[in-house]
UniProtKB/TrEMBL annotation:
<dbReference type="Pfam" id="PF08592">
    <property type="entry name" value="Anthrone_oxy"/>
</dbReference>
<feature type="transmembrane region" description="Helical">
    <location>
        <begin position="12"/>
        <end position="40"/>
    </location>
</feature>
<dbReference type="InterPro" id="IPR013901">
    <property type="entry name" value="Anthrone_oxy"/>
</dbReference>
<feature type="transmembrane region" description="Helical">
    <location>
        <begin position="60"/>
        <end position="79"/>
    </location>
</feature>
<protein>
    <submittedName>
        <fullName>DUF1772 domain-containing protein</fullName>
    </submittedName>
</protein>
<feature type="transmembrane region" description="Helical">
    <location>
        <begin position="91"/>
        <end position="114"/>
    </location>
</feature>
<feature type="transmembrane region" description="Helical">
    <location>
        <begin position="146"/>
        <end position="166"/>
    </location>
</feature>
<keyword id="KW-0812">Transmembrane</keyword>
<keyword id="KW-1133">Transmembrane helix</keyword>
<keyword id="KW-0472">Membrane</keyword>
Amino acid sequence: MTQNNAGRRTTAGSVLVAATVAMGLIAGTFYIFACAVMPALARSDDRVYVEVMQNIDDVIQNPVFFLSFIGALILAGVSAWQLRSSERLRWWVWAALVAYALAFLFTVMVNIPLNTDLVDAGDPARIADPAAVREEFEDPWVAWNIVRGVLSTIALGCLARALVLYGRTARRTPDLLPSAAGSA
C-alpha cells in the first residue's frame, strides 16, 4: 500500500464520519421537533404558536444549522462517490444519500414554503385570524417534519452501518479499502 492510497483511504473514512455526524445532527433536529417542540407548541394559543414558529424560522437560519443541513447532503454525496467501488459499503452510503436527498427535497418543497407563508402572515399581534393562519400551517408542517425525520433517521442508520463496515474492512484488509479516487 502506498502512502498516497493510505491518505485517500483516510480521507474516505473521514468524510464518512463527517457525513454520519452531520446526518445525526439533522435527524436529531427533526426528531426533537416531532417529539417535543411541536407537541409543546400545540398546547399554545394561536398567536403564541404563530409567534414562536416565526421566531424559530428566523433563528434557525444560521451558519451552524446550514452547515449540517447542507453539509449532510454534500458529505453523503462525496462519501458515496469515494466508496463507489466498494461492494460492501456503496449501497449503504447510496441508500443514505437517496433517503436524505428526499428529506432535503421535502424540506425545500414543503416545509420552507410553509415557513415563508407563516412569516408572510405578519406580526402575530396584528393578524386578524391567527387560528386560520395556524390551521393552514400546523398539520402539514408537522406531518412533513415526521416524514423528513424518518428519512433522515434511515439515512443516519445507513451511514452508521457503512461506518461499521468501513471500520471492519480497515482492520482486516487495509489494502482492499477503496481509495478516494475509486480504485480498489
